[in-house]
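Document type: protein sequence-to-structure record

Subject area: structural biology

Format: plain text, a pair of labelled lines:
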Amino acid sequence: MKPAVKFAILGAGGVVLLAGSFVTFAALSGTPLHEVAILKNFVKAPEKPEAGSKTEEPAHSASAKEEHAPETAQATKEGEHGAKPAPTKTETRAIEANVGVLGAFLLPAPFSTNELTDLQKSLRGANEDAKQRLERIELRERELGEWEHALEQRNDELQEMRRLLEKRELELSMREAEVQRDEKAKNSREQQSWNELAKFFSEGDPEDLAKKLVLFEPKEAVRILRSLDDERASALVNALPPDKYHAYLQAYRATPKPE
């Protein structure tokens, strides 16, 4: 079968099904078909009898009139007093038909009463638990804030202590440099004085000068010898008395030559 023919058949079937459903619902609504839109073009309205014409009514029509007579009288009486007239049987059947059709579109409730109650209790419990957790979180945040503030204060104190230590260290370094400078100046002046004294031993007979050299302590004699050149110092040491030679030689070896 060709696709075009297949689609045409399906379209025609859909139109027929739609038209049939429309006519069925219109008939179930209780409204006369000649009064329904679109259908009134295809259904002819029944002829109304002329005024004054006498027609015979069937027996069941007469009985129906008798049955409806009390209802009509009651409706007329209520209309006179301003109350809403009661619906007729035709209107009642139309309403029942509409209710039956609309009932097909009603959906069952997703939850029962007990389920809704349990759900409400569960939501309340979850809400209460969330409030308690929020309170604990807020308390924890306050504690963390206080701890952070304490840490900041401690950090400021440590920074201040560090600044003071650096300042103290700088002062000590400057003091040490000053002491070293003074010590160096003192040593320089003292060495200069020994250099001046060594001039008395730079010339002359080594044996005569050795006798004068032993009058000094070994450490002092060595200061004089270190101020002389190596050849002159060696001659004076070799001219020392034998009992003084070893002591002065050891002192000379242990004392470095000044720069």
Summary: Confidence is low (pLDDT under 50) at residues 51-82.
